[in-house]
Amino acid sequence: MDAYTLFNWGLLLLTFGLLIYLGYLSSKTMQKDDEGGFLVAGRSLGAFVGAGTIVATGFSGWGFMGSPGVAYQFGAIEVLGNFFFAPAMMIAVLYFARFLQRKAIDMGSNTIPEYIAQSHGGGGMGRVVQGVAAFITIVLLLVFLTSQIKAVGLLGASWLGIELNQSAFLMVGVIIIYTMLGGLAAVAWTDTVMVCGMALAAVIIIVQMLTSVNLGEWQAALNAIDPELLNPTTGAPYGEHPGSVFLVLPYAFLFAAVLPYMAIRFLAMKPEVKLHRVGVYVAILGALLSLIPVVGIYVRMHMPDLADPDKAMPMYLEHFMHPALQGIITLFIIFAMKSTANSLLHTVASATSHDLRLSLFKQSATSAGTALFVNRAAVVVLGIVALLMMLYAPPFMLSWLGILGTGTLLASMIGPVFISTFWQGSAWGALSAMLIGFVTCGYMMLFADVGWLVGPLTGCVVSSICYIGVSCLTPRQVGSKSPV
């Protein structure tokens, strides 16, 4: 083991200690046996922590590993597409977060499936809706979590000089520990530390690229490889028409506003938090991280024959960064991927231990202490399940698998989460919309060659129409404050 590998291990172990310590501190802030503290951080997140966890979760492995791979394969269109996430997240914070937050606080909702059930009347039908929402959330976010674990495992393996399986086990193990200890508070606090490192890494990477290559030569080299890289005639991978890339903006807005692992952050912020401050922090951090896909184009110029586009970022770090800087930046990128992985794991565990439990049994049947124990046990079990899924999954492109999970979940949830905030539908409308959105988007992503965004957005349209249409034909009830 050389000096730089020892340096990398030292960095990793030091930061692992910090993350676990933050998990321990956040666990001390929760009241004893307080399940709400585990699920929504006791609604205690301030402006900067709220923004930090939103941006870290939204960009993360997708931004640092997936997007450079897509840019390597398809060119500059991915740089434009990735840029839309920052303004979309800011719009979601400024114009949607308060509606969702106030309604959830009024009903006492601690998860998004619980919010869906309570906002559609609660009772027996509400429990069915909550159970179905939880099941869809678990299945689809486990798919996305599989891609995140593979991403962090690949990068960690090359960085530390170990096997993929060993790296994935190491990274997932630490995520399980601090998420289990502190719940969403631990996730948010560690995300905020991570996103500061991610922003610093983005600055270092952009400075290195712009100071090491002549822009005119860069352009000429890319045009010689493939003119489509800088002047695309299609919108691939987002659709056939070049304008398809602009669909990223509405997709990214709904991504931030509707997906359970993103929207839960709105429920976890302090009721009195100034959302315009959150929006400013989101815009600044998001703008910095939006530049990362340029790495893929840079590597394409220097290494045009990579067999696996997802190796663009590891190859960049290995060949174009000083070993010490490579170690530090790799650590920040691992932070990025962990920030989404821990959020996904927390959401999947909450859906399993909280929502499925409440859909099957009355809340009074389980004490608060037992519920908290079950929540923490679910983190451990589902973390291991996701690791096993990654180990035995067939080959896949990281970004595609991420959109398969998040896009299908978005199509399932848009009616009962987003539309219901402004127009209240029925429980039957919510149930049918989730199932129709799931089937429509899942089919288009797996079997129809329509681009990465057309499937999810088509699923959103069909699901929304179904939500409104079925709701108009069935009895509607106001939201319930009582347990479902």
UniProtKB/TrEMBL annotation:
<dbReference type="InterPro" id="IPR001734">
    <property type="entry name" value="Na/solute_symporter"/>
</dbReference>
<feature type="transmembrane region" description="Helical">
    <location>
        <begin position="372"/>
        <end position="392"/>
    </location>
</feature>
<feature type="transmembrane region" description="Helical">
    <location>
        <begin position="280"/>
        <end position="299"/>
    </location>
</feature>
<feature type="transmembrane region" description="Helical">
    <location>
        <begin position="452"/>
        <end position="473"/>
    </location>
</feature>
<feature type="transmembrane region" description="Helical">
    <location>
        <begin position="45"/>
        <end position="65"/>
    </location>
</feature>
<feature type="transmembrane region" description="Helical">
    <location>
        <begin position="71"/>
        <end position="97"/>
    </location>
</feature>
<dbReference type="GO" id="GO:0015293">
    <property type="term" value="F:symporter activity"/>
</dbReference>
<feature type="transmembrane region" description="Helical">
    <location>
        <begin position="248"/>
        <end position="268"/>
    </location>
</feature>
<dbReference type="GO" id="GO:0005886">
    <property type="term" value="C:plasma membrane"/>
</dbReference>
<keyword id="KW-0915">Sodium</keyword>
<dbReference type="InterPro" id="IPR038377">
    <property type="entry name" value="Na/Glc_symporter_sf"/>
</dbReference>
<feature type="transmembrane region" description="Helical">
    <location>
        <begin position="128"/>
        <end position="149"/>
    </location>
</feature>
<comment type="similarity">
    <text>Belongs to the sodium:solute symporter (SSF) (TC 2.A.21) family.</text>
</comment>
<feature type="transmembrane region" description="Helical">
    <location>
        <begin position="6"/>
        <end position="24"/>
    </location>
</feature>
<dbReference type="GO" id="GO:0006814">
    <property type="term" value="P:sodium ion transport"/>
</dbReference>
<feature type="transmembrane region" description="Helical">
    <location>
        <begin position="169"/>
        <end position="188"/>
    </location>
</feature>
<keyword id="KW-1133">Transmembrane helix</keyword>
<feature type="transmembrane region" description="Helical">
    <location>
        <begin position="426"/>
        <end position="446"/>
    </location>
</feature>
<dbReference type="InterPro" id="IPR050277">
    <property type="entry name" value="Sodium:Solute_Symporter"/>
</dbReference>
<feature type="transmembrane region" description="Helical">
    <location>
        <begin position="195"/>
        <end position="213"/>
    </location>
</feature>
<keyword id="KW-0472">Membrane</keyword>
<keyword id="KW-0406">Ion transport</keyword>
<protein>
    <submittedName>
        <fullName>Sodium/pantothenate symporter</fullName>
    </submittedName>
</protein>
<keyword id="KW-0812">Transmembrane</keyword>
<dbReference type="Pfam" id="PF00474">
    <property type="entry name" value="SSF"/>
</dbReference>
<dbReference type="InterPro" id="IPR018212">
    <property type="entry name" value="Na/solute_symporter_CS"/>
</dbReference>
<feature type="transmembrane region" description="Helical">
    <location>
        <begin position="398"/>
        <end position="419"/>
    </location>
</feature>
<keyword id="KW-1003">Cell membrane</keyword>
<keyword id="KW-0769">Symport</keyword>
<feature type="transmembrane region" description="Helical">
    <location>
        <begin position="319"/>
        <end position="337"/>
    </location>
</feature>
<keyword id="KW-0739">Sodium transport</keyword>
<keyword id="KW-0813">Transport</keyword>
<dbReference type="GO" id="GO:0046942">
    <property type="term" value="P:carboxylic acid transport"/>
</dbReference>
